[in-house]
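Researcher: Excuse me, tokens okay?
***
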Amino acid sequence: MKKLFAALGIAILLTSCASNGRPSDRERVLRAVGKPTANPSDIVKAELSFARLAREKGQWTAFRETAAPDAIMFTPELVSAPIWLKGKVDPARATEWQAHKIFMSCDGSMGVATGAWQGASGGTGYFTTIWQKQDAQNRRLRGKDVEWKWIFDHGVPLDKPLAEPDFVTTRVATCSKGALPIVPFAPSGEKNKSGFSTDRTMFWSAESSADQSRSLLVRMWNGVEWEEIIFDNVAAPTQ
């Protein structure tokens, strides 16, 4: 655990700084013209803050305070997160989790974290959380820090814990000057929700079925095609 958190700290430094703590030439140019830039360390920091808030203020309190107004989650049905979380009592001890992989759209408007969790009662599993930057342009004009909220979250139990990586890996979608090929997906409905990053270089789709099986698909543009980076396909509960 200590090794992973140390790696997270290193990842923040490496991904946010080009050299000597200064942004890269590309970042400086884009910031100067007011264009958004991708910085995966934003998601690393959001995850660390989320987990710390859960430890300090309570698990469901942390979920409520970091969720977007239209956030959804699997319970295992697909539900509105704010509605499901309303009034939910925090457990005595919060679940702990650590991001293993971070993915981000080219413009930095959306990020995905996936990794491991450990329950207070000894259970273990993996999670996937999708984060979205909130009203970044207006917040910047008002001199406020960029704020991230999660728009999708789910956790899945495993018989064995995920292997702990030596460091957190990060990937950023390839930027595109023109229109990208269409991603086939079902229209959003009661049991199906989907969305794109602002620049449309990242796509996600979540779906739940009547038998409580569920799936999450995330794709990102790699410059040639839509690459599947996450496919969580969870079978219906056996009990």
About this structure: The first strand starts at residue 67 and ends at 74. The radius of gyration is 18 Å. DSSP finds six helices and eleven strands in the chain.
